[in-house]
Input
Amino acid sequence: MEAFRKIYERSPRFLRSLYVNAYGLNNVSRLRKWERLLSEIEYTERLEREGQIALVESRLKDVIRDAVERVPFYSRFSALVRDLDDVSAFDVLKEFPLIDKETIIHDPEAFVAKDPGDFVVSMTSGTTGTPLRVRMDRGTFLLTDALWWRRTAWAGYEKGDWIARLVGDPVIPLRIKDPKRPWMISRTDRRIYLSTFHLSAETAVRIGGLLNRRKPEFMMGYPSSLEILCNYLDEAGFRMEWSPKSVLFSSEPMYDHQERVVRKVIGAQIRGLYGSGERMVSAAQCGSGSYHLSLVDGYVEGQFGIMENVRPAAVTTLTNSVMPLIRYQLGDVIETLPEFGCECGRTLPVMSPVITKDEDWIITPSGRMISPSAVVWAFIHQEIDGITNGQVVQSDRGSVTVYLNTTEDNFIRYKDVLRESMEKVFFGELDVDIVRTDRVDVSRAGKSRFIVNELRQRK
Ligand SMILES: [Zn+2]
Output
């Protein structure tokens, strides 16, 4: 993957366009698989509560049994599974310890099943700055991709629709500082890849022009990137002559001030998706505005009102046989609403939108605004392991400091590659200092944020 990225970045535009279109062909075949999977589980969207509980309970029992047998960390719980057939899975689940990222980073191998077989790795960080590699079987990977896609399907996707994306796709090499066309177009799967990394007053207007010409049916993006784009367009007095079926967002929560400017500039209904890189839980927003949990990927304690809603949320995988995490705390608070009946008719359990702290962004001397998810991308894009916490702090116009909570060895191993990757995302406009620390609440501004911009806060 890394080797291909290098080839891509060195290639001229027409070759890059070819690669993007070839990748699109692959997407077309993935989409077919997702649609097949989604039609197989469509019945679960309207299943009555008892049926949902029975489904989840039976899968929980399988996961628990398998984990105790094959996963070193869980082998000491063998006494719990002896009478598993005769007792409630939820009662047994309670006996397992809560674990979190730090538990796993401490000894990742203890969570991997013996003879895992073929697996894929999903890198996760969220906006917490704690990278974690979660291994999973291909079935889990495909299913969770399909569940993320379901939100687009619910929003009225039809075959042939175009989707513009303003997320972390590195389609324009960062060596090109001011691209005339800050996008790539894939005709094979009808995607417009807009470069989140290149947003500026000039590129925003060009992107606006492209959207007016091509009128994609969907606009998808990180809330922070959509906000930056729409703010630039608004300030330029740009007139949008297009409105998509829906604006789709994910990766970050969308705040009121962001929603306001997106509605003002683009219009259209806005639909969110909650998911995590661990791929154990996801929720899609329906037309009535509710976030419906997916039911089949993971069990969130509290979703049925049977177990207590733990904070931060505790989730158990229902599918991953390679690294089956039990009672894993993602770090997000998920407010479950087991009694809520949604007007859309779906009976899937509902949660409140996840509220995390409003992240800052980084501002370069030339005025570029770099969204938190773009910085996270630079951060986890490296295959870094063993970092418990990270924080990026901008305290003056010309530099940022990256604080890493990790061992001396890891620090030495990753500091240069991380500096290089960060400098690239900031277009070489900012000096990047990497500092090792044993805590990340080094800044006065707030300890749990990934990005702290002290320049913005002083205003
Ligand atoms: Zn609904």
Notes: The first helix runs from residue 2 to 10. Confidence is low (pLDDT under 50) at residues 442-447. The longest strand covers residues 389-396.
